[in-house]
Amino acid sequence: MSEHPVVVAGKPAVAHEAHHEELGFWRKYIFSTDHKIIGIQYGITGLLFLFLGFTLMMLMRWQLAYPETALPLLGAILGETRMPGGTMLPEFYNSLGAMHGTIMVFLGVVPLAVGGFGNYVLPLQIGAPDMAFPKLNMISYWCLFVGGVVMLASFFVPGGAANSGWTSYVPLANIATTGQTWWLIGMIFLITSSLLGAVNFITTTIQIRAKGLTFWRFPFFVWTQFVTAFLLLLAFPPLESAAVMQLADRLLGTSFFLPSGLVVSGQVLEVAGGGNPLLWQHLFWFLAHPEVYVLILPALGIIAEVITNNTRKPLWGYRSMVYSLMFLGFMSFVVWAHHMFMTGMGTAMATFFQTTTMIISIPSVVILTSLIISLWGGSIRFNTPMLFAIGFLPMFGIGGLTGLPLAFNVPDIPLHDTYYVIAHFHYVVAPGTIFALFAGIYYWFPKATGRKMNEALGKIHFWGSFVFMNVIFMPMFIVGLAGVSRRLFDGGASYAFAEPVLHWNAVSSWGAWLLAIFQLPFIFNFFWSMRKGEKTDDNPWQATTIEWAAPSPPPHGNFAVEPTAHRGPYEYSVPGAAKDFVPQHEA
Amino acid sequence: MDIPYTEEVRRDTGLTNGKIGVWLFLASEVMLFGALFASYILIRTGVPDWPRGDTILDVPVATFNTVVLITSSITMVMAWASLMRGRFGTYRIYMGATILLGGVFLVVKYFEYSHHLALGEFPSTNNFLAVYYTMTGLHMLHVLGGMAVNAYFWGPGAKLWKTNPVWFTNRVEHSGLFWHFVDLVWIFLFPTLYLL
User: Fold this and answer.
1) CB distance from A349 to chain B under 8 Å?
2) Which of A120, A161, B13, B167 could cysteine-pair with A179, CB 3.0–4.6 Å?
3) In whole angstroms, what is the distance from residue A106 CA to residue A194 CA?
């Protein structure tokens, strides 16, 4: 703090020192209102949940590779209600599946991509001293925390955690064990957290940006967070309504989602009936399709920052990328029912949704193409963040292109319930978004700590992850095209037609376990570099955007002198300039 | 460290942070209730018969409650307008009336609910009642929330008037925006549940 006195509007901060009390440990690090501390809280929470979600999946992969085989050591720890004699029960497998999805999406990627990077980087990039509503920011994080604790606790209630899929389809979810109630309550906290966060992000971006920083001077990352916040703001409330209705169904005995005459275990369910099970799917996917873009847009933002910085070139097609981004945001609200072609919807509806789905692929392709063209003719620096960014491009490409057959009503019907879909969307979010998140961690680590992460360990981490991500997911296309259902707890072993492709299950599983081993260099690097990493100056990557004008790590209030933006975000290799980058904040 | 534009407007946007924040929050609230209204339509049109609201619910009582809420919206505006004219005493009276009218609404609602429950009409009885209890229940929670905020600005929060009248007036305006929204939701709930 004392090294960099905070200056507000050109006046030294001395005037404010009078009512500036020194904060204690709890207010400084736990119940902090500083966007940077909150960003780190979100980020660490997100990373821990990503690791947990991955662990759940590694357990599932054992069952899929070696069905009905006792898992050595771990099997005994998990107990008789989950893995009697070390062999996994189908109910436990279902819980793992539902919670893997829930944790990865709502507690892993979103908190890290939006809560973590958004909170830490966005105010710095727009030259703000903090978020517009610092207390609300703190409340957002603690709502997420409570939601996370509720989700974790649900593993220990009778019947285990929610086991009706991360989509919680009714009527199954309505009659599921207690874990489902916990899931719904947890979701209400997570949704509230996202809503409050979204209000904060939008207000901050509009109001607290630095002098001279017009919208067209925003770094692409700021744009992605801005659009993402609108998606969170408008798409999440319908799921909140849906969660309230499902809670009412489960606790008050209402029939919002229960049709008349529903037979469960050979008996007609004693409820009023008259409800609509498809209503849940509509409300769920009305959130969950925009949610897909919540997962991917911040990732695209990070990639754009890393690529421009390491090619030393302006972003190719900045304006068309921004327009595409806005169009993507808007369109993401009118494609949701392509997740529901299997429900027997009429051809008119299916045609509408497959048309909008085809249209939404256009702006995605514009953005990806612009990023690829940005590489053209650059003298590329192959550091760890850049490797992850370059790795992201083909992975996201594969994920996107394999989505095309799913966009059409007719090919979707045979493919939808198979491993093909699992492979498709994991290419988008696992080697896609998660690679971008790694790129972001390596890229902004020096800003948060004043030290760089180790390059050699970073490269081991990248190549191991790159290879084994593909070893996991590529075989799933084969298994899926052979028609193996993605919902079977034995991975298809009980079906004769799956026989020729069944051995790929073990390949995927070994890929997952080896991927875990290649995360160890990252975990070690993360903690080791905090203390022992190479010390850097404030702008180690010679970047142009405003966050690098702040000291590393930035003090409370961020900037020594209130920054002013003088130009666009990516003035790299400007002809005639003294150095190959001209920062936004330099006059 | 101070966050800019909490009291004064930013010149190029013409807005304070709080005002943008409240409007964004209301946008999300529109989606929340919008989803419930949409679900109501889908459930109602999906079954062969659905009771008319006035055969089950008490229209005169709900009409009375509608008048109560609309009046509270007027007093809310008057409370803000009093602050704009610098009349803190009048503000206290109007704000007090707003909170009181909210209370009247809740008391009427309490008698309405207990009347139906006494008749054995529970949320589980049929989907009409499920919709009725869920939507009015969620609305009632919003009334409670609005009353809590208004009560804060009537009581302890009003200290801000002495140190920073502009900011205090802004905060009352924002609280008013939320209160009008809660009103508006009822204006939709009343005909769709009680009359149609």
Assistant:
1) no
2) A161
3) 9
Q: What is the CATH number of the domain that holds A114?
A: 1.20.210.10
- Report the residue of chain A nearest B130, measured CA to CA: A254
Average pLDDT (A52-73) is 93
Name the minimum distance, in Å, from the CA of A212 to any CA of chain B: 11
* Closest CA of chain A from B16, distance in Å: 8
pLDDT at A22: 72
- Residue A438 one-letter amino acid: F
Mean pLDDT of A341-360: 94
Structure-block tokens of residue B99? 């909170």
What is the structure's pLDDT at B1?
Answer: 67
Q: How many domains does chain A have?
A: 1
**Residue A367 resides in a domain:** yes
Q: Where are the beta strands (DSSP E) in A173-283?
A: 263-264, 267-268
User: Quick one: which H or E segment has residue B82?
Assistant: helix B59-84
Q: Which long-range contacts (CB under 8 A, 24 or more apart) does B53-57 make?
A: B53/B128, B53/B192, B53/B193, B53/B194, B53/B195, B53/B196, B54/B194, B54/B195, B56/B121, B56/B128, B56/B129, B56/B132, B57/B112, B57/B132, B57/B193, B57/B194
* Rounded distance between C-alpha atoms, residue A129 and residue A123, angstroms: 7
pLDDT at A20: 53
Provide the residue range defining the domain that includes A96.
32-257+273-549
Tens digit of each residue's pLDDT (9 = 90 or more) over B35-86:
999 999 999 999 999 999 999 999 999 999 999 999 999 999 999 999 999 9
In a domain, A577, yes or no: no
Nearest chain B alpha carbon to A231: B28
**A125-137 pLDDT per residue, tens:** 999 999 999 999 9
Residue type, A85: G
Does the beta carbon of A202 lie under 8 angstroms from any beta carbon of chain B? Answer: yes
Distance CA A96, CA B97 (A): 54
Query: Can you tell me which residue has the tokens 């609309």?
Result: B70
CA distance to partner chain A, nearest, from residue B90 (Å):
30
Tracing tokens 């390596």 back to the chain, one arrives at: A442
Who wins on pLDDT, A542 or A25? A542
β-pairing, A7-8 vs A267-268, is unpaired
CB contact under 8 A, B127 and A255: yes
Domains of chain B: 17-195 (1.20.120.80)
